[in-house]
Each structure stands twice: as structure tokens, then as C-alpha cells.
């Protein structure tokens, strides 16, 4: 039943060197990274045509691998850049990541499909959720965010891996599969469900697509979507059990994001939230579940002074739940002139207010000592951005709350230009790593810092051991452009290390990059292994000193899988008896546009620039997904059970 992966894909010869024995991993990037410590920043020019230029900021000299003069038009924001950092071909490649999958698979990943070696100590199950089925009708176009949720799992044990995927059988999914066409309206899509002219714009009930997050807790697996209730799945088979209100607990939706917090006694809690957004008063509810699945903390709070907002993520610290709200207002003009006529979605009526400010909300965890003495905090930052995803939050000894988040310069919920226009990647939304500091006693955001200037990042994570606590490492995906204004799709895996030394106040810090690549043309890989760039820090006037990372370097390790490959959210998995944040593995999915198939990569978290320990080449496509989780339980079949088929005939899912 199994065959060589070359029959599924044609691998580039220079991508990886092959492993000669079961105990030896010879996977290496094309070039081992070195590090530059020069005080003068080194700038990188790179283009899709494989031009590479290393030049000082004076631009007085330029060593180019291909003959190409450096002109003044190449200089933007003090950085030498190619004229086209994102081209039409790259956008077409990116769009292939959003193709539907129409099969549900179950199979053992054959060892011939694996380059390198799966660490034998890696035992557990990796889950991911995301939109897997997109509407292909010519008369009805659905937003990529509205695709039906598809959960896949990879179960690891003794160096073996078992893959399966299944769609979440929501009520809407089942009805539309039976009909073979769209029947229900969705949040990010416009007009009638079937693309017709007649629809009721005041019917604000939307299809629960269950496509955002996934969590395994107390023996149960839940598919999450922030505007509806979770769907319970069988964690072994991924078969849908049904929509759940968590034994009557939920009176509204449950968010797609959550945190697993480790208490002082070593026990863990699933900390999550749900928001009700409505005119006349919105509210948020927080829940904490112990390891037995019992809700041990529940609280509800009004979002004071806020009617319409968009709450996608949360963070937690020892004493607080943390929300960061971007300035969102309801566009009544667009509602009247476009939404009522079916020309835009209800989500597109949420308008980013470029003159508004970010609000940070801290709500006390009610079971903490002295919780009654900690009133809710609403603090306004002197900044304007939109946060989709938070990295982490923690409390300093003096009581200040530090929040690391991904700040988008703006947001537009019509994301069609994301895959159609190179101009989208010229400034615009541009997400970047920002750190906020809040003084709860004074209810002030006292500090805002941009942590990285020349890399956009998203889908961040930290080690589970430091969720809600001070962290030193951030794992994320980022672009490969390396510029303070221009950016591109996520084509790199990154590890950002934050120095913990306290230095004297200065106005700027510096970031050091170590970049390695795999699968790139030889010309492009030569002399492009390092970048050292200035990192400005922005501090509010209300704070007299910049207390974080003063005069020290952030270290960013970068691994790029190739010019036609796109990375998904990295998952941090602590090793058995882990002794530190980076004593872990990183699992990340990669979409290869040249083959339109998926890879699952495993890295050593301490050395991601060394390249992957193992690459699992899947024989099929997996659509771009959102979020995942990992549990230490092996939820797959017995590897030595001969009755388990090596490959099960896939179940076909209808197009709609």
C-alpha cells in the first residue's frame, strides 16, 4: 500500500541530505548560520530573482551575486530593497494553501516518507484545526475564514506516527453536505448564502464553522469557534459527538483561544473566555477548569463603555485575565449602503478607527488572595493598532503587568486583497511584535515598545511552563523580507530570545539575526546567513525610563523552508523532564506550493536554525489551518497491532 514519497512529490535535490542510518540525523540547512557582531548594521537585499546584496547603511559599496546596480530607488526607510519583494507568483503560491481538502484520511506515516528521525522520546498527540472546506460555487463566494472546520491529528509513539483528519460535523456542515450547496450565512461572507439576491439582512444568526481552535482537556476534545459553542469530538477517532454547552455552563459562545496555566502546586488549569458583543452593552465571561474538567472559577464582567468590538484572544497572569482591544467602531454608513444590499459582510461593517486608541483590560482572577482588593482595570495606550494574537503576559515584582502581543497597524475584514494584491504587503496592516506595560494601581499603560522592526511575525507561542509567567523565548512565524515597511507572507520559522539583564536606560536596542535556509537555490543562500539591524524602542512620555532590554540584543533565529513554502503556527512541546523553556521540540506544518502537499516538521527548540530533526512528507494537501494543541497522551492505534490497516481508504467529502 505504501510507496516512495518520490511518487507523491518531486523533492529538490538540495533540500536535505538523506539519513544513512536509523540513529543518525543528517538533515542540515544549505548553510550553517554564523553571527555578525559589528556595531554598524548590516542590511540585506534579496529578491525573488535570487539577487542578494550585503551593504552597510552608507550604501557606499554593494557585493551583488548577480550584476545589478544599486540605485537610489532601492532605498526605502534606510534599507536596500528589491523593487518587487512580493510578486504575483508568490501570491499564487500562497493562495494554494487555501485549497479545500475533500478526503478524510487514516494511515500510518511510512518511514520512507520521513527524512531524518522522529525523536523516540516524543510521545503524544498533535491536534490542529482550521477551515478545510471552502465554497467553490461560481455564484457564491465565501471568505476563507468561513471554511468548515477540519481537525487533524498526528499521534507519536516510539518513533512512529499515525495521521487522521475529519471534518467537524456541525449542524450546518451536515445540512450543506446533504444539499451539496451553501445553505447558511457566514460571518465574513456577503449577501445570501447561495449567492442569490434575496436574503434577510436583519437575521444575524450565522453558521457555526467550528474552525478556529482545538483543545484536549480531561479526556475530551473540543473544536472551538469564538462566535458559537464548542463541538465535542472523540479524541481517538475525531468523530463528532455534538455541540456542547459544557453541562449547562455556557449561556453564550466560547472563545477560540485559551491558555493552559500551571499553578504554584504544579496542577494545570484550562483558562478560557467567551464574549457577547451587542449594542447597548457587551460583556465577557471567564472560566477556569481543573484537570478533572470541573469549572472551578467563573466570572462575568461588562465591557464598560464598549458596545462593538472584536475580542479574538486573551492572556492570563497570576492574578489577572488580560484583554487587549483594538479601536473598532461600527460603520453605520457601510451597513446601510452595502450590507443591506448584500455587497459586504457583517464583519466588514466593523471598522478600524485610525484615530482611536488601544484599551487594555485587566480583570482579577476571583480565587486569588486579595482578589477583592483588585478592581478591574481599563487603561488606554497612546498607540493605535489591532491585536489578533497575544504572545504571553506576566506580572513584575512591583505589580506591573507586561503584555507581549502582535500588533497589526490596521485591520480590514475584507481580506480578499491578502491573496490578490502585492500592494497589500507595502506597509498597510503589517503585524509586528509589541510589548505593553500596565500599572494596575494607576490604571495606566506606562510603556509601549516595538520589539522587532524588520520582521513581521504572527501565530506566536511560548513554552507551556511559562504561560502567565516571565518568558525568555518566543516561537512564531515571520516573513523573509527583512524590512521596516515592506513585508510578505509567513515563510519562516523564528525563535526570538529576550535577554533578561537589566541595563541602564537607553533609547534603542539592537536585534541580532541568525538565518538559515533549506531548499533554496545555491545563489540565494550564499552570504545571506546573517542580519544585524537597529531596533528602535518607543516609550511613552509618562514613563521616565525604559526598563526592558536596555542596551541588550534580542536574538532571532530564523529557519526558512524554501521560496515556495509557507509555515503554520509552531507548537512548543516540552521534552520529558524538561529543564528549561527551550528544552523542547517544535512542531510546525509547512505547505509546499511546488507540490501542493503538506509537511510536518519537528525541530529542537534550542537550535531551530540547525534545521529540522525530522520532516514528515504527507502524501496529500492540508489547507492552511489556524490553531493547534498537544497532549502527552498517545491517541492512536497500537503500533504493533497488525489488525490496524496501514492505509484506510479515504472518505470523500462533497464540494459545495
TrEMBL record:
Keywords: Iron, Metal-binding. The lineage of its organism: Eukaryota, Viridiplantae, Chlorophyta, core chlorophytes, Chlorophyceae. This is Uncharacterized protein. Binds 1 Fe(2+) ion per subunit. Its cofactor is Fe(2+). GO terms for biological process: carotene catabolic process. GO terms for molecular function: carotenoid dioxygenase activity; metal ion binding. Fe cation binds at residues 257, 312, 389, 627. It comes from Chlamydomonas eustigma. Belongs to the carotenoid oxygenase family. InterPro entries: Carotenoid_Oase.
Amino acid at each position: 500500500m505504501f510507496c516512495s514519497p518520490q511518487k507523491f512529490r518531486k523533492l529538490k535535490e538540495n533540500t536535505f541530505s538523506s539519513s544513512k542510518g536509523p540513529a543518525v540525523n543528517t538533515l542540515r540547512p544549505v548553510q550553517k548560520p554564523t553571527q555578525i557582531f559589528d556595531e554598524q548594521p548590516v542590511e540585506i537585499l534579496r529578491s525573488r530573482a535570487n539577487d542578494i546584496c550585503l551593504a552597510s547603511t552608507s550604501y557606499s559599496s554593494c557585493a551583488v551575486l548577480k550584476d545589478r546596480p544599486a540605485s537610489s530607488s532601492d532605498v526605502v526607510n534606510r534599507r536596500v530593497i528589491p523593487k518587487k519583494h512580493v510578486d504575483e507568483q508568490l501570491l499564487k503560491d500562497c493562495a494554494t494553501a487555501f485549497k479545500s481538502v475533500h478526503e478524510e484520511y487514516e494511515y500510518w506515516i511510512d518511514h520512507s516518507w520521513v527524512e531524518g528521525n522522529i525523536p523516540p522520546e516524543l510521545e503524544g498527540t498533535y491536534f490542529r484545526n482550521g477551515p478545510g472546506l471552502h465554497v467553490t460555487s461560481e455564484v457564491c463566494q465565501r471568505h476563507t475564514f468561513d471554511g468548515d472546520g477540519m481537525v487533524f491529528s498526528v499521534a507519536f509513539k516510539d518513533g512512529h506516527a499515525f495521521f487522521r483528519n475529519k471534518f467537524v460535523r456541525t449542524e450546518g456542515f451536515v445540512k450543506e453536505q446533504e444539499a451539496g450547496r451553501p445553505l447558511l450565512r457566514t460571518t465574513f461572507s456577503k449577501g445570501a448564502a447561495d449567492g442569490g439576491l434575496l436574503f434577510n439582512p436583519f437575521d444575524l444568526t450565522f453558521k457555526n464553522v467550528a474552525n478556529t481552535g482545538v483543545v484536549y482537556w480531561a479526556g475530551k476534545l473540543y473544536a472551538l469557534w469564538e462566535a458559537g459553542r464548542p463541538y465535542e469530538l472523540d479524541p481517538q477517532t475525531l468523530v463528532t459527538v455534538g455541540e456542547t454547552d459544557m453541562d449547562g455552563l455556557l449561556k453564550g459562545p466560547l472563545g477560540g483561544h485559551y491558555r493552559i496555566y500551571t499553578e504554584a502546586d504544579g496542577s494545570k488549569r484550562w483558562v478560557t473566555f467567551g464574549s457577547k458583543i451587542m449594542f447597548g452593552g457587551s460583556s465577557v465571561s471567564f472560566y477556569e477548569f481543573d484537570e478533572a474538567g470541573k469549572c472551578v472559577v467563573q466570572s462575568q464582567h461588562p465591557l464598560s463603555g464598549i458596545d462593538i468590538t472584536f475580542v479574538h484572544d486573551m492572556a492570563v497572569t497570576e492574578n489577572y485575565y488580560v484583554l487587549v482591544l483594538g479601536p473598532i467602531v461600527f460603520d453605520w454608513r457601510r451597513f446601510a449602503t452595502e450590507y443591506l444590499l448584500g455587497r459586504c459582510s457583517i464583519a466588514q461593517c466593523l471598522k478600524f478607527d485610525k484615530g482611536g486608541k488601544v484599551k487594555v483590560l485587566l480583570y482579577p482572577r476571583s480565587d486569588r488572595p486579595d482578589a477583592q482588593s483588585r478592581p478591574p482595570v481599563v487603561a488606554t495606550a497612546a498607540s493605535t493598532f489591532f491585536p489578533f494574537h497575544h504572545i504571553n503576559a506576566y506580572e513584575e515584582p512591583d505589580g506591573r503587568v507586561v503584555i507581549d502581543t502582535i500588533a497589526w497597524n490596521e485591520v480590514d475584514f475584507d481580506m480578499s486583497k491578502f491573496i490578490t494584491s502585492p500592494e497589500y504587503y507595502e506597509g498597510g496592516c503589517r503585524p509586528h511584535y509589541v510589548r505593553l506595560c500596565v500599572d494596575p494601581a494607576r490604571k495606566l499603560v506606562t510603556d509601549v515598545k516595538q520589539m522587532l522592526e524588520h520582521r513581521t511575525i504572527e501565530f506566536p507561542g511560548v513554552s507551556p511552563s511559562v504561560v502567565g509567567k516571565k518568558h525568555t523565548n518566543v516561537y512564531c512565524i515571520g516573513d523573509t523580507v527583512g524590512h521596516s515597511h515592506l513585508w510578505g507572507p509567513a515563510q519562516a520559522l523564528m525563535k526570538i530570545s529576550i535577554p533578561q539583564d537589566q541595563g541602564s536606560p537607553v533609547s534603542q536596542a539592537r536585534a541580532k539575526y541568525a538565518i538559515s535556509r533549506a531548499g533554496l537555490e545555491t545563489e540565494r543562500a550564499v552570504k545571506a546567513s546573517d542580519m544585524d539591524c537597529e531596533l528602535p524602542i518607543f516609550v511613552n512620555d509618562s514613563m521616565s525610563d525604559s526598563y526592558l532590554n536596555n542596551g541588550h540584543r534580542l536574538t532571532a533565529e530564523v529557519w526558512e523552508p524554501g521560496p515556495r513554502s509557507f509555515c503554520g503556527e509552531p507548537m512548543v512541546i516540552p521534552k520529558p523532564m524538561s529543564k528549561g523553556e527551550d528544552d523542547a521540540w517544535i512542531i510546525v506544518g509547512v505547505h509546499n506550493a511546488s507540490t501542493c502537499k503538506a509537511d510536518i516538521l519537528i525541530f529542537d527548540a534550542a537550535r531551530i536554525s540547525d534545521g529540522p530533526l525530522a520532516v514528515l512528507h504527507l502524501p496529500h494537501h492540508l489547507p492552511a489551518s489556524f490553531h493547534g494543541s498537544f497532549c502527552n497522551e498517545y491517541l492512536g492505534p497500537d503500533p504493533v497491532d497488525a489488525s490496524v490497516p496501514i492505509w484506510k481508504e479515504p472518505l470523500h467529502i462533497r464540494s459545495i
